User: What shape does this take?
Amino acid sequence: MYIMGITCYGHDSSAAIVKDGELITAVEEERFDRKKHSHAFPINSIAHCLRECRITMGDIDHIGYYLRPWIGYAPVALHFFRYFPRSLNLIFDRWIAKSKDDYIPYGPLTAPRQMLSVGKHIRKVYERDSPNFKFHFLEHHLCHHASSFLVSPFEKAACLSIDGSGEWTTAMTAYGEGNKFTILNKVSAPHSLGTFYNSVCEYLGFTFLEGPGKVMGLSSYGDPERYYEEFKKTVILREGGKFFINFDYFDYHVTRTKKRYSQKFVSIFGPPREKNGEITQHYMDIAAALQRILEDACFHILYDLRKKTGSKNLCLSGGVALNSVMNGKILEKGIFDDVFIQAAASDSGCSIGAAFYIYNMLLGEQRKFVFKTACVGPEYKEDDILKAINRKGADYRRLDNVADETAKLLADGKIVGWFQGRSEFGPRALGCRSILTAPYPAEMKDILNKRVKHREPFRPFAPVVLQEKMGDYFEMDYPSPFMLLVFPVKPDKRSVIPAVTHADNTGRVQSVTKEDNGLFYDLIAAFGKITGIPVILNTSFNVQGMPIVNSPDDALDCFFSTEMDYLVMGDYLVTKDGKSPDKKQDVQ
Assistant: This one.
């Protein structure tokens, strides 16, 4: 039985395919169309899924879509009349966004015609295959829950899904047991922690969707106490894990393309930062207060969820679940003993959730799959790599031992593009489409941001460590395979790995096991043998504003447009300007 899940016409379009209860592959459309957070119909992602399974659309039994858009129509109408005439901006906003082929983040208003006809569109596109699938519209937050709990190692778990909004829900708590959910609580738009965070990111001079990851890193440079008391008035916490947004401070409920914060917000916190303007201590302190308020609100929900369910296990999903600083503190505070967050926690992961929701819940099949590795995307053969290298006219040679010889380059302080196996699903590069270097000296962080990533200097880089060595370098040795947990670096190790130790002495850590990524594990181990440090710096193989590379051609284009030193693709070492490391230097 083949089941496909898709997301599109919102943000982070993707497709995934499940065969007899096992995930075969999943990929985001942005990896193909090269538009970050692509909202397009995932024609390329679907084609990849079919190729990977060597089937046609005629072999698909079920397709699940990550929204039931009509659920939001009545509350949208009520919202519109409640805030009339200011809500007229929402109609104008949608028209502007559509004219720019842009995304307007307002659930069912985004693209209603396309959303409602997506099943018919698939049948038309693949008419030649005589498709006979059953199409399912599925509730957004249930897809989020399914994308986490149904592929988790837990038989029972408390579940929280939290994001900008689905059809109209912005947060949903549930209790998962076996292959069933019991919904416990919902919070409805416009009260949204995801949009609240994004709105302040806009005030800080960053863009929607891209801003939260940047501001999370910026918050470490600020003092949260300076604006904390005033920020506490923006999100009001209520009994039973409830919250609501104080719209004296925000305008996002009546506009989405203009400023989302109110004049009162500006009068209290001062003028907004201009895009590319100086990031002063003032803005750092606001970022720190914002981060603390988000944590306060989420912990408020989670403490209530733990009390209601009695479960020690938590499954977390939705875009807010990408806030790795918050995630690490859930474990540090002991709110839950064990936490599972699927690598693609935001909307792209809903394609996985839709497929497993159909298999496990609608069809009643027992769970059999656990999401252990995010490396489930496209893979390119040796012939594909060689053809791409030759098209570029690049100098290259074959490596005798990829892990050992690359480790030597890293130990020599080189910056290496790393392209291996299947691409990762989700926003993090986890050792298949990565840029790697040593976790020292401290200046390496600035070199990478300026020479390679072309991004803001405050942005941190991730330490990747052998799982069994994690406790030697970090205050917690809890597994973090998807780079979604931030833990403090041990005091005696901060000077050892300064390039991956953030301003607040933490690291967004990735732990690696031999079982889940053998070659990457061997590389880190080899680096550890040379240097005595089983930790390397890992960042995504891209530059600012671009998706992570997908194909060998993407990797080569990125390599030659930056100041990376070497590129390792499969067994091949690619160099620049005819400069290749001396064969005599190869590790034996």
Notes: The first strand starts at residue 2 and ends at 7.
